[in-house]
Fold:
Amino acid sequence: MLAFIIRRLGQSILVLLVVGLIAFSMFRFVGDPIDNMLGQERTIEDVERLKRQLGLDQPFPVQYFKFLQGAVQGNFGVSYRQGRPVSEIIRERAPATLELAFVSGIFAILLGIALGVFTAIRRNGIAANFIMASSLIGVSLPTFLIGILLIYLFSVELGWLPSFGRGQTVKLGDWWSTGFLTESGLKALILPSITLGLYQMTLIMRLVRSEMLEVLRQDYIRFAMARGLKERAVNFHHALKNTMVPVVTVIGLQLGAIIAFAIITETVFQWPGVGLLFINAIQFVDIPVMAAYLMLISVMFVAINLIVDILYVFIDPRLRADRAGAH
Amino acid sequence: MADTNLPLTERAVEKGRWQRFRESDFFHAFKRSPVAIVSFAVVSVLVLSAIFAPLITSTNPFDPSTLNLMNGFTPPMEPNAFTGQQFLMGTDDQGRDVFATILYGMRISLFVGASAVLFAMILGIVLGLISGYFGGWTETIIMRIADVQLTFPSILVAMLIFGIAKGITPVEYRDQMAIWVLILAIGLSDWVQFARVVRGATLVEKGKDYVAAARLIGRNPWAIMIKHILPNALSPVLVIATISLALAIIAEATLSFLGVGAPPTQPSLGTLIRIGQGFLFSGEWWILFFPACTLLALALSVNLLGDWLRDALNPRLR
Amino acid sequence: MKTAKKIFLASLLTAVAMPASAETLKWARAGDALTLDPHSQNEGPSHTIRHQMYEPLIIRDTTGAFEAALATEWAPSESDPNVWVFKLREGVKFHDGADFTAEDVVFSFERAKQPTSDMKELINSITEVRAVDDYTIEMVTDGPNPILPSNLTNLFIMDKGWTETNNTVKVQDFEGGEITYATTNANGTGAYKLVSREPDVKTIMERNDDYWGKDQFPMEITEIVYTPIQNAATRVAAMLSGEVNFLQDMPVQDLERVNNADGLVVKKAPQNRVIFFGMNQGADDIEADDVSGANPLADVRVRKAMSMAIDRNAIQKVVMRDQSIPAGMIAPPFVNGWTEEMDAESSTDVEGAKKLMADAGYGDGFSIRLDCPNDRYINDEAICQAAVGMLGQIGVKVNLDAKPKAQHFPLITDGKTDFYMLGWGVPTYDSEYIFNFLVHGRESDIGTWNGTGFDSDELDAKIKSLASNTDLDARNADIAAIWRVVQDEQLYIPIHHQVLNWGMAENLAIEVDPEDQPKVKYIKLN
Structure:
């Protein structure tokens, strides 16, 4: 057991090292940093000085090691665009993204499970088929277009909801600013959350539906029905409970996707989170920010993977050797 | 899922292929599903009109020198105020015929989507076979990469590859490069599902007697994998490929919105939508509406077809 | 009506807190200031934000005329033609309470001359700035400089004490990714004080009630909330839904919709900015084309032909929806040296252009890459795209490479593009500014934005002499002569002068500033 966890941990660290290497080589590939920093009037001395200053005169492995050293301490250097430490900027922007991800995650889970159960139970009903079909429309249009259409309808035509930003935010402690405590903050969350959560909602709904259908056909359910248990009780107490294991796994894995797809939603709604920061970094060739974002996202994904793996082992030791085979 | 496909090939060996197909459960299920028939028809019409675009329309919207800017913003079925020309679906901000541009744009979208899926499929199948058949550390490495890749969202992978490729390709090749980078980027972010399914099937089949026998007589492992193991995984691969195609087409549109997609002089459906959304408030609805509807029709039908395929190939759900 | 409202509000004040929204300017545009450091990044949106908090010695009002800011009087010295004398405003305080004196002016000019400063080109004729007494300044130039004041309207004055205390004397090295205190903090003498700033998210300013001009300007806005909104559709939606009451960078297609909306108006004025294409004609061979061993752009006939292929009226009608004025020279009409005749010199003649191409030996055309920004000028990418089609008609096959401005501009200043779009505004209202940046051969402190490779010693000498020519008639004759060369050589392909549109709530009253730099202190409420 312990050996398994240690092995997985070791693998995860290896993965992070590789991602770190990619993030680091971005410094070299996406434009020469010296080129970006010094203008037309640079002299040979300028180039040499800056090279020394940035440590670029050292061998590549040494540079990489130094970058990792900084990254482990949360030091990703200074943003070219804002002239502030990257870690500080990301800490400032993270609450916006996390709150948005949280609300859209809740939206996706609650509505997804509810609709999934409904469409499974009323498998051949008109309403269920309608929901299934229209959920496909939701995933057949690009997210940015859905966002813009929502803005057009609810901000411009109806004037009900704000079209951009977080509204009024309240500072909690030193680093956290929340939009949950003001009316405008809550209103501002609605459209971006729907835009961001729609895809995951559909995914969860379809998963719950097919798992439900699978479970409902199992013998013990049929037996329960035959024994005369109320349909409702069977549906919710027995069937749904057994559906939840794969659903929870998928939700865990989708958490990362929500944060990454926030890039698009944040661009459309001018939502001041890390996704917008990343897009701006790309526009400004702000390599330290790009590298930091990449590292953070990978740490998060690798951590999610590790947790899911370990949980699996606790739930069912038989799966230890082969998680993927369960699919 | 891997163990549930139908042994279609083993039945009715003497009959012709077409006849075999017509008598198969698969085709019967298709005939009975109106959704499947309609989606199949829509996809066929769209794909064919994209392929034969130059025969359907006489204008080539990708040749900028043939455009007349004065035709810009012509509403559908109304004569242009300056030139008097009339267009079925109007024109966009550059005076391009929206109808023709959709046909040509769909070519880009379909080409990028299909190539990306093909690329992902081949990569996924090869890696899935290798990891399932050989096991050991090869398997560990491949599946670990797959784990990370699966959680790492496609958009981000694609943007990363795009960024790096833009950094290392010489500027003069960037125009041609864009589409290939798109294919590579979307494909690379999409191979994991294929690999997992194929690996699963491989694990199951590997234990069976006929594979063991083939190994004993010393057959080439690749021959075993491709001839014996792979056919058992084909139906789930087909389902995943269909759904991936829809996803790839939408991913391309999303990347265009983020400014890393097809160039505006050779717009894909996604680029057209990005351009059109700028005219949503000003009343020139057709620039957005027609491309968006086309994309919706295409992605929706492919999705429905994929859905139906999954049900049809999985007899337990029937 | 207004007084009645004031009395009403005043009576309310005792009972309840005044509704803050009534005087808040909710201001949005596409991009944010790059930095607050007054001497780093000579760029429009950055200057616009600085103008609310910092002040130069002299500013321009909405008509472009000089107005006294921190200097009350200025004139050339009677004894020495190489010296300008400035009388400074007395009793002015910085936001932190420090007094404004001559010492601060001397300090700020020295700061702006540092190598990392982006303002150094504007004052490179100044050799010394000295304080005669606390409220008198003398500026010594390297020769008589009749138009020195027009170079000073974006040159902001910082407090020496504040800058030194906060260790930010060195101008932020923006390109080097440097951190300084002045990047995100501000301490000026301006009408608004910085409350908070999150780059790319939100900048909040409040009224400076100790401002020297409190009684002279309306100053009816008490708070400014400035939010960049990148996505054009979102930006317009924010205005239509009332979340924003002042909007710059309006998409031209949405002007009508905004103007027709209840409670909103669009105000327009010609902008002090011209859009054009630059061509690398100096190199023997260029990278961006498919002709090897030769540079087609080096042939003036090719350059003329390319200019003749551009249908400026079609761009104006369709791409710009009449929000532009076709241009024949790369000077906006506000500028000394602009003439109506030269501005009409661009003509469209596809057949003639084809003939010129054939004469030059490029009858079969050639292909070339066009570098274009996609987030800087009004419809920049669409203009480039239209040009691609028009140039295609004379056989010039153009590959368009559109990218964000932060990636586009370094290509020009580093000489890495051979065919590019650029826009130029002229804050000095004088041709010398254009020549210094765009016509003079490229050197370390002059000609820095001249990506054409054009370098004529004769013309350079003439440009250099403009700075010290006190005989205005002779100077204007020189300017005209330089323009003649620029026109005849087809150094650039002019496209159009931009027309500026500001969307605002009906209760706000401000005239559109031709430099696209709204100064909030002028805004009245009605």
Summary: Chain A touches chain B through 49 residues (CB under 8 Å). The longest helix of chain A spans residues 231-269.
